[in-house]
Amino acid sequence: MTEDFIHFDKNDELCIIYVSGEVDLSNSAEVRKTILSALKTTPEVVVNLAHVEYIDSSGIAAMVEGLQFANSHGKTFGLSKPSKQVRSILELARLDQVFRID
Amino acid sequence: METNNNETVIEVKDLVTHYGQRKILDGVDLDVKKGEIRVIMGGSGSGKSTLLWHILGLYQPTEGQIKLLGKDIHRISFNEQLQLKQDIGVSFQSGALFSSMTVGENVALPLREFTELDENTIRIISRMKLEVVNLGGFHKLMPSQLSGGMVKRAALARSIVMDPKLLFFDEPSAGLDPVVASEIDDLILSLRDTMGMSMVVVTHELDSAFKIADKITVLDNGKNLITGTVEEIKKSENKRVMDLLQRRSRHDKLNPKDYLKRLTQENYTLT
Amino acid sequence: MINVLIKKVESIGISTFQAVERLGFAMRLFWDSFYWLIIGRRYKQKVRLRQVVEQIRVNGFDALPIVMALCFVVGMMLSIQLLYALSDFGAESQVLLAIAKSVTREFSPLITGVIVAGRSGAAIAARIGSQVVSQEIDALKVIGIVPVRYLVLPPLLGLMVSMPLLVICADFMAIFGGAIFSAHELNMSINAYMLESFNVLIVGDVLQGLIKSVVFGIIIVLVGATTGFYVTGGAEGVGKATTSAVVISISFIVLADMIASYFLTQ
């Protein structure tokens, strides 16, 4: 379960984190940790959310923290392919205008 | 949102409750599906607020059963109740913000009490919720510094901070000017559409009810009068429903002798 | 005539019933507070240390100046009266002993209790009462926070800690007040008077005052919270509750003082 839920592709320039399934209070801390530690070692981090079925506020907060860290350390942080549910939640808090989404 | 989902999330069966000798609720049933917005209407004294307090477990019924998300609220342990409460958000008529805390602390309180989240994460989540209700940047104010509409929106932010599955509203737009009231209605709709929450809204505002409701339940004298879609309610030929829609209050048939007594007797009291 | 009599008896019955009901409610609050203190962690109902410290600050530390000032004055007043009364017997030298004992055993806990009842008892009743009126209690319940744990336990612990501390300061100030007035009459320096006072006191004297003060603290919180939770009728109800919280808690304090004195002086 945990192996499927989060994994990443990494080279010197770019780290892509793939998250899938449900992100909620029980595992958002892990997402947060992964994002922050990836940002410490690579200049660009992208979180792929294509296979996220559900994400709660703590999951979104983890992304916000990633962006905050990236901006204050001169790195790049983005989201890619958010699923419909993720996108609508981002739009609800108008975060779609804050994140770089591709 | 998802029309093929028929899961019942709120189930009330045969609810009876007394206040002293008076029956407030007399066999009320309610059945709300996932993702549905159910509006409960009725004149004052119809028992609509009492029903809400019972569903939330604030009052004990005389008889009847209440199931939320499949769990009988009177038959589960304290820990299960606590678990259930994380899945429920309530927005009170007065807002019921904690007056000794700032708006931000109010919104963050459930996260602080019931999650192990990092303080930084808690701050982001609670401010995000304030953004959702259009109160971005207001987290440092005290509740007493907010206007009526802002209090209600802040209370709404607090009620959704745990991402609940069920959301309850007591008179969300009462006492607000039409513009703010319709803002709240829009918020209710967009929350349902994005988060798939199921909602029960107790209100007496017709415009708001027709705008947000999937189904409307009308209570009268503690009994179910009718349940149906907005169209069905509008077309109903039931006299009490028509009275309600046309905002007519009921006058009992006048008894001239009683009437004279009420006007003239010094010690007259209602029996 | 008979009707009036029946009405009177009826209303006495009703108010007795209400009084007993509230007494039961207060006992229940006390029991529940310690239940949640001990078992709360298991049910996600942790008592925050920060909340308790805040209560110690508000109910204890902030009351310190007024408590110290009044006890100083009471110490002076006692020495005036005792010097006058005892001079008839030529027993002025006993003033020091009389002040030290009466102050530590009786006056400083009582005065502290009355002041804190007026400050904190009223504040607790007003706070809880207005929270009942504004549905904040209901909001706590639906969020999953047990109101007793959140609203009653912190001030209860706060007062149980701060009352004895206040009383120690009060003891000191009252004896000092006595010293200012009577040291000269007794041909002693103020320093010597103070030292001699501490010498004549035994542990039991001070302890009696401290035990009483803890009991008074409990009474103040329970009476304040009970009247607060029973508030009905909006803002006016809150005002009434505040007044009756002060009156009732002072009455209970005096009563408890008498009972405690009886048993602790055996």
UniProtKB/TrEMBL annotation, chain A:
Family: Belongs to the anti-sigma-factor antagonist family.
Pfam families noted in UniProt: STAS (PF01740)
PROSITE patterns cross-referenced by the UniProt entry: STAS
Family matches, as PANTHER family: ANTI-SIGMA FACTOR ANTAGONIST TM_1081-RELATED (PTHR33495:SF2), ANTI-SIGMA FACTOR ANTAGONIST TM_1081-RELATED-RELATED (PTHR33495)
Top-level taxon in the UniProt lineage: Bacteria
GO molecular function, one term: anti-sigma factor antagonist activity
Name of the protein in question: Anti-sigma factor antagonist
Record-annotated STAS domain positions: 4-102
From TrEMBL, chain B:
The keyword Heme is assigned to this record: no
Keyword presence, Flavoprotein: no
Pfam hit, one: ABC_tran
CDD domains: ABC_Org_Solvent_Resistant
Ranges of residues in domain ABC transporter: 10-246
Gene Ontology molecular function: any one: ATP binding
Keyword annotations from UniProtKB, A to Z: ATP-binding, Nucleotide-binding, Transport
InterPro entries from the UniProt entry: AAA+_ATPase (IPR003593), ABC_transporter-like_ATP-bd (IPR003439), P-loop_NTPase (IPR027417)
SUPFAM superfamilies: P-loop containing nucleoside triphosphate hydrolases
Transmembrane segment boundaries: none
Name assigned to this protein: Phospholipid/cholesterol/gamma-HCH transport system ATP-binding protein
Organism, scientific name: Marinicella litoralis
TrEMBL record, chain C:
Any Gene Ontology CC annotation: ATP-binding cassette (ABC) transporter complex
Pfam families in UniProt: MlaE
Annotated transmembrane regions: 64-87, 150-176, 214-233, 245-264
InterPro entries found in the cross-reference section: Permease_MalE
Annotated keywords: Membrane, Transmembrane, Transmembrane helix
GO MF entry, a single one: phospholipid transporter activity
Protein name: Phospholipid/cholesterol/gamma-HCH transport system permease protein
Organism: Marinicella litoralis
